[in-house]
Specification:
Elements: H1 16-32, H2 37-64, H3 68-81, H4 86-98, H5 102-115, H6 120-132, H7 136-149, H8 154-189, H9 201-219, E1 220-227, E2 232-238, E3 249-253
Antiparallel strand pairs: 1-2, 1-3
Helix pairs in contact: 1-2, 2-3, 3-4, 4-5, 4-6, 5-6, 6-7, 7-8
């Protein structure tokens, strides 16, 4: 299966200079409108936004350096501030795939598309996570939704969807071969016993020969005679001409 590594999304990174500018503006607003509760709320909100963007950015930097566990901690901290942020879930799903934790990756990507169903990159990440679980049909659907939102994305079309369709064709071919093998085994198991011709000339001749041999053996009987002196004599007798032992015989065994 194709390997999908961490990829920073466009517009995700916020420069430190911009963050510092926001902080300066918030401090100025606090000094100018010290007694204005509305400005206090606005300044607190701005500081929260700055902190959130810093956490996102730090997590992205950690992910680029393959420090995935630390990146997840940063994004989980950011999710405490904004639990509805789809971008955080989408990035978290990416690094979970890099850690080969596919079930949590699918869950994080599903959270992303639930919070922003119009995010093509969230649908793309969900499709990749579904491929990691072997859910090829679901992955194809997710890639198709991503393309529906952003039709001009060559990456989803040429890489993701093309790869998923190739896997789907291979899966269908394997399934067809398995079904054919099972049908063949079933046919072999139900193959009828050959219908032998027991009245053929060859079989009749063999049976006749066996019968003649048995008849000859039954007509000739062998008798073992032991005399008083200990001599042993084997005598073959016929039914119509029995052999009569003399008076010196004391043992007769068949």
């Amino acid at each position: 299966m194709a390997s999908f590594g961490w990829k920073r999304r466009i517009g995700e990174k916020v420069s430190k200079a911009t963050s510092q500018q926001f902080e300066a503006e918030a401090a100025d607003e606090k000094d100018v409108a010290d007694d204005d509760d509305g400005n206090w709320v606005h300044a607190a909100k701005r500081r929260k936004e700055i902190l959130l963007e810093d956490l996102k950015d730090e997590g992205a930097d950690l992910a680029e350096n393959r420090r995935y566990r630390e990146a997840i901690l940063k994004w989980d901290e950011a999710l405490q501030l904004t639990p509805e942020d789809a971008t955080l879930y989408e990035m978290k799903s990416q690094v979970l795939m890099s850690l080969h934790e596919m079930f949590p990756a699918v869950h994080a990507a599903e959270m992303a598309v639930q919070r922003n169903p119009r995010s093509w990159d969230a649908w793309q990440t969900l499709g990749r996570a579904q491929l990691g679980l072997g859910e090829i049909a679901l992955a194809i659907r997710s890639f198709q939704v991503s393309l529906h939102i952003f039709p001009m994305n060559p990456e989803v079309w040429k890489e993701d969807l093309s790869w998923a369709r190739k896997l789907h064709e291979q899966q269908k071919a394997t399934k067809t071969e398995s079904v054919q093998a099972l049908l063949k085994q079933k046919e072999l198991a139900q193959e009828p016993i050959p219908d032998y011709d027991f009245e053929s000339d060859e079989i009749v001749a063999v049976c006749a020969a066996i019968a003649e041999k048995e008849k000859a053996l039954s007509e000739a009987k062998t008798v073992v005679i032991v005399s008083a002196s200990g001599a042993v004599e084997t005598v073959t007798e016929k039914d119509n001409c029995p052999t009569t032992p003399d008076e010196t015989l004391f043992i007769r065994a068949r």
